[in-house]
C-alpha cells in the first residue's frame, strides 16, 4: 500500500457530468474524465483493508455484495496511485474480459461494498477501472494477442451479448476455434441495442470486437439459430454449442385498450433509436419517436430510466415514470447495513434530465395503468392511472400490490413504453435445441453447472439465470467457458 492515509487526505472526486440541458442535445457519453494526476489521487483513497468486500461478490440477504468477477480491486487501485498503469491493466485483465463495458454500465457493486464508504465516501473504483482500460488502449496494451497454438476444437456460441462474448473470448484464448452467431445485424446483443449510446457509445463495442476478430474469433451476424439454421447442423459441425441468447421475452401489461397504437416494449423502443442512430444518424425517421408526445414509462428500473433519458433526447412534451412499489428511503435503514446492497432511492441520469427540463421528478410511486384509451383511429390518447397499496392475498398469503378503488385518474398520453422486466428466454431457441427449462423458461442445469440436458449443449448468462447485470453475465460466460474447456480437453486451465 502506497499511501496509508489516502482516504483521509483526499476527498472523493468523480468525473464531471455535462449539464443535463446540454447533454440531451445528442446521444454521446456525457462525463468528462478526471486528469491523470487526480485519478491517481483517487486510487490512493483505497484503504487496502484486511477484508476487501469490494471484490467479494458474495450474496448477502439475496443481494450481491462486491464484484461478481472478484476483480483485484485493492491491487489495481494501489497501482493506479503509483502510476503503474501497465501492471494495473494486467491485474484488471486477469479477472475481467471487458472492463471497457463494466466501467460504463455496471451499477458499481464494488463501490457499494467499499469499506471506505462505511463512514465516508467509497473509492471511485469504477472510474479508476475506466482510466486503466483507456490507458491500455491508448498505449497498445489491449491490442490483439492471438493464441500461440490451436487445439483443433470448434465451438459455436449462439448470442453475442456479454455472456456470449465472455465465453468466446475465454475459449479462444485457450486455443479453440470459436464462431459467434448473432441474429441481429450487429454484434453486441444487449450491449448494442439494449443500452443507449449515451451510456455506452457503440464504437467502444466495435473497438473490442475488432480486437477479438484479430485474435481469431469469427462473428456471423443476421443468423437466427433456431430459425435460420437447425440445431442438428451446429451439433454436427461443432464440438460444443453454447446458448447465450439472453432473457429477451418482455413482461407485458394486461389492461383494457392494450391493442392501442402507441404502446411499445422498452427494448423495442431503445433498439429502434440506437439502430437508427447507427444507420442514418436519426435522420430518416426509422425509429419510434417521442418528440412532442406525452410519454408514460411503466417501470422504475434501469431500463425505465434509459427510456426516460432517450425520450428527453427525442424532445418529448412530457414524461412520467410509473413505479409499482413505494419510494425507497434516501439513506440506508438499520435493517440494511453495509456491506449489503443499499436499498435507497437513486436518481439516475434520465430522471436528472427530466427534472432539469420539466422542474420535477418524473417518477410516480405505487401507481400503475388501469386502462389505455384510444381515439377513433385506434391511436393511444390517454391512460387511466390507479394508485396501489400493499395487501396480503388470503389464498396465497403472499403480499401483493393491489389497486385502490376511487383513485383513478385520466392523463393525456400518446406513447407508452413498457419497461416491466423480462420473463425469460424465447421458446423457439429452447424448443429447437430440446433443452430442459424451468417454470421461468430459464434453461435448467445442475447446481453450479452449465451443461444442459442435451449433450454438447451448454448455457450461460440471462438465458440460464434470468434477467441480471452485465457483470454477472460476464461471470457466467467465464465459468461456462471453463466447463466447456474441461468437457473438450479433460481439464481446464482457464
State the helicity in percent bands: 25-40%
Please report which band the strand proportion falls in: under 5%, 5-15%, 15-25%, 25-35%, 35-45% or over 45%: 15-25%
Q: Tally the helices.
A: 18
Query: Uncertain segments of ≥5 residues (pLDDT<50)?
Result: none
How can the largest sheet be summarized? 5 strands, parallel
Number of strands: 20
The CATH class of the largest domain is Alpha Beta
CATH domain topology of the largest domain: FAD/NAD(P)-binding domain
Name the structural class. alpha/beta
Number of domains: 3
Report how far apart the termini are: 29 Å
CATH architecture classification of the largest domain = 3-Layer(bba) Sandwich
What is the gyration radius calculated from CA atoms? 23 Å
- CATH homologous superfamily heading of the largest domain: FAD/NAD(P)-binding domain
Using the alpha-carbon principal axes, give the shape. globular
The largest sheet has its strands arranged as: 7-6-5-8-20
Amino acid at each position: 500500500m502506497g499511501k496509508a492515509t489516502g482516504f483521509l487526505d483526499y476527498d472523493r472526486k468523480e468525473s464531471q457530468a455535462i449539464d443535463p440541458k446540454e447533454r440531451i442535445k445528442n446521444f454521446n457519453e456525457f462525463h468528462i474524465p478526471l486528469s491523470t494526476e487526480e485519478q491517481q489521487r483517487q486510487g490512493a483513497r483505497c484503504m487496502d483493508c484486511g477484508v476487501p468486500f469490494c471484490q467479494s461478490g458474495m450474496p448477502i440477504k439475496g443481494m450481491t455484495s462486491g464484484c461478481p468477477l472478484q476483480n483485484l480491486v485493492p491491487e489495481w487501485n494501489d497501482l493506479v496511485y503509483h502510476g503503474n498503469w501497465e501492471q494495473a491493466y494486467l491485474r484488471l485483465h486477469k479477472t475481467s474480459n471487458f472492463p471497457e463495458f463494466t466501467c460504463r454500465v455496471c451499477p458499481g457493486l464494488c463501490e457499494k461494498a467499499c469499506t471506505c464508504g462505511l463512514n465516508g465516501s467509497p473509492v471511485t473504483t469504477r472510474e479508476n477501472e475506466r482510466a486503466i482500460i483507456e490507458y491500455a488502449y491508448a498505449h497498445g496494451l489491449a491490442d490483439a494477442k492471438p493464441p500461440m497454438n490451436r487445439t483443433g476444437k470448434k465451438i459455436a456460441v449462439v448470442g453475442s451479448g456479454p455472456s456470449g462474448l465472455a465465453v468466446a473470448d475465454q475459449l479462444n484464448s485457450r486455443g479453440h476455434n470459436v464462431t459467434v452467431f448473432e441474429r441481429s445485424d450487429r454484434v453486441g446483443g444487449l450491449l448494442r441495442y439494449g443500452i443507449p449510446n449515451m451510456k455506452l457509445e457503440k464504437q467502444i463495442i466495435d473497438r473490442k470486437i475488432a480486437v477479438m476478430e484479430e485474435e481469431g474469433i469469427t462473428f456471423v451476424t443476421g443468423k437466427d439459430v433456431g430459425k435460420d439454421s437447425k440445431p442438428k447442423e451446429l451439433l454436427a459441425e461443432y464440438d460444443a454449442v453454447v446458448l447465450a441468447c439472453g432473457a429477451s421475452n418482455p413482461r407485458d401489461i394486461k389492461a383494457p385498450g392494450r391493442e392501442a397504437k402507441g404502446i411499445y416494449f422498452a427494448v423495442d423502443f431503445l433498439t429502434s433509436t440506437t439502430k437508427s442512430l447507427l444507420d442514418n444518424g436519426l435522420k430518416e425517421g426509422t425509429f419510434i419517436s417521442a418528440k412532442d408526445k406525452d410519454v408514460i414509462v411503466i417501470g422504475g428500473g434501469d431500463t425505465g430510466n434509459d427510456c426516460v433519458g432517450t425520450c428527453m433526447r427525442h424532445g418529448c412534451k412530457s414524461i412520467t415514470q410509473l413505479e409499482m412499489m413505494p419510494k425507497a428511503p434516501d439513506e440506508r435503514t438499520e435493517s440494511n447495513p453495509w456491506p449489503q446492497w443499499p436499498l435507497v432511492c437513486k436518481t439516475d441520469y434520465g430522471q436528472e434530465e427530466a427534472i432539469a427540463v420539466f422542474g420535477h421528478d418524473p417518477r410516480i410511486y405505487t401507481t400503475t395503468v388501469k386502462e389505455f384509451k384510444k381515439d377513433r383511429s385506434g391511436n393511444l390518447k390517454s391512460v387511466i392511472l390507479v394508485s396501489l397499496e400493499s395487501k396480503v392475498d388470503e389464498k396465497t398469503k403472499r403480499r401483493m400490490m393491489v389497486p385502490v378503488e376511487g383513485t383513478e385518474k385520466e392523463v393525456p398520453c400518446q406513447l407508452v413504453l413498457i419497461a416491466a422486466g423480462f420473463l425469460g428466454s424465447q421458446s423457439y431457441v429452447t424448443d429447437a435445441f430440446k433443452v430442459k427449462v424451468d417454470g421461468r423458461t430459464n434453461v435448467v442445469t445442475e447446481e453450479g453447472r452449465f451443461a444442459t440436458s442435451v449433450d454438447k449443449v451448454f448455457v450461460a448468462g440471462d438465458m440460464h439465470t434470468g434477467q441480471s447485470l452485465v457483470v454477472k453475465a460476464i461471470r457466467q460466460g467465464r465459468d461456462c467457458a471453463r466447463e466447456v474447456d474441461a468437457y473438450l480437453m479433460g481439464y481446464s486451465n482457464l
